[in-house]
Amino acid sequence: MIKKLSIQPASGLQGDLSVPGDKSVSHRGLILGAISQGTTTLHHFLPAADCLSTLTALQKLGVPIKRVDTTVTISGRGLRGLTQPQQPLDMGNAGTATRLLTGLLAGQPFETTLVGDTSLSQRPMERVRQPLQAMGAQVQLTAGHLPMTITGRTLHGSCTEMQVASAQVKSALILAALQADQASTIIEKLPTRDHTERLLQQFGGQIETAPDQRTITVQPQPALVGQSLTIPGDFSSAAFFVTAATIIPNSHVRLTNVGLNPTRTGFLNILRRMGGQVTVDHEHRMGEPVGTLDVRFAQLHPVQVTATEIPAVIDELPLVALLAATANGISTISGAAELRVKETDRIATIVTELRKLGVQITSQPDGFVIDGRKSWRQPTEPLASHGDHRIGMMMAIAALRLAAPAELESAEAVNISYPTFFEDLARLSQGCEDDNCIDQRFGANWQFVGTKH
Ligand code: S3P
């Protein structure tokens, strides 16, 4: 496992990259495959720690699942075929897996306890317990957090007006609604990623989103049928390279096979407003829009981002902050209080880390103000992930733009969503065409976290 990396400056990123499979779709493909009849095959599955937490949890719920590299075969048990696990399910760091499985297990005829790592055990679970309880679920929390015990019950179809804009909570409610005694309606606070809705339709479920994009109706007790799916590349993973190519002079990168679901791509709209040089080539659809991103270095302008835009860029906000730290003026990001309850308090960790580079950034309760006009300086202490995969990857990208090498602590956090991140980053770094070169660029502390090709 990587502990500390010495990251060398890059003189430009060049080349093509196909990023690993989408994390959100990988979780959902596993869960829907498990509750369908027949075999589901997932191609281009993301074999990262978070998705493996879901895979293992489903195995412990009695679902036969085999994985060979990025291909997963699930022998579906149907909506009523899960069995009680022998022990508490360890969800690791995976918030998505925890919230989604809570909705699923609320309607199963047995009791399950979910536990997680230190970070996950501090994340709010009341947001999922409360609306599920309104459907008749029995979910017991520990002071609002994990450990959580779910005692499966008969669930009642209901109309839920959501209090937070969260695709995880929405998806938990959809999974519960599948098991209810009548149709359910879910009204979102703001539209969020709709992978569950799209996939459920593919598996044969009946779910409709009204033209307002916020009102979702779910029909209960569907006969879901196993599918063969190819999971698109993760837009959130691609966004790290979009950012790197944008802020490092002499860069030109093409990212192929990237999922371009419009509920996920708010980052591209923001980047374009800042003057980013990115073109999008929509290629084909596989239930989800997919395409190629072509990105070049650009001098950026400041940007204002407000609440309605946040759900479509929630996981890329660390990167928006990084872009803003290179722009020729003052940017503001507001309406993003949800960042405080991610894998870390990302408002706090982004401010701490960017300040190490001399960036003028101040935190607000729900966002940041960033003045990008001051030149960055060499950090006097190591950069750190704080155990948060997206903060670690953001700071690795930032380090490429410095004048001298910088150290990154707890770099192994990338395993949560992107185990081959440093290999892919090294490949795109100019002049780096083989594994020996990767060793040189990342210094003596480099060790491979993923499969060495
Ligand atoms: C996700 C939803 C978002 C996102 C997370 C993945 C999902 O979380 O930040 O990385 O797959 O549903 P919230 O639902 O808490 O906004």
Determine the structural class based on helices, strands and strand pairing.
alpha/beta
**Which small-molecule ligands are present, each listed once?**
shikimate-3-phosphate
Q: Whole-number radius of gyration? A: 21 Å
Please tally the β strands and state the result.
23
Residue stretches low in confidence (pLDDT < 50, at least 5 long) are 443-453
Record keyword descriptors for this entry:
UDP-n-acetylglucosamine1-carboxyvinyl-transferase, Chain, globular, binds shikimate-3-phosphate, 23 strands, 2 domains, 453 residues
If you had to describe this structure to a student in words, what would you say it looks like?
The chain is α/β, with parallel strands linked by helices. It has 2 domains: 2-18 and 232-452, UDP-n-acetylglucosamine1-carboxyvinyl-transferase, Chain (Alpha-beta prism); 23-230, UDP-n-acetylglucosamine1-carboxyvinyl-transferase, Chain. It is 29% helix and 24% strand. The strands form 6 sheets. A 4-stranded mixed sheet has the order 2-15-17-16. The model is unreliable at 443-453 (pLDDT under 50). The structure holds shikimate-3-phosphate. The site of shikimate-3-phosphate (S3P) has 10 residues, from helix 5. Shikimate-3-phosphate is lined by residues 24, 96, 166-168, 171, 193, 314-315, 338.
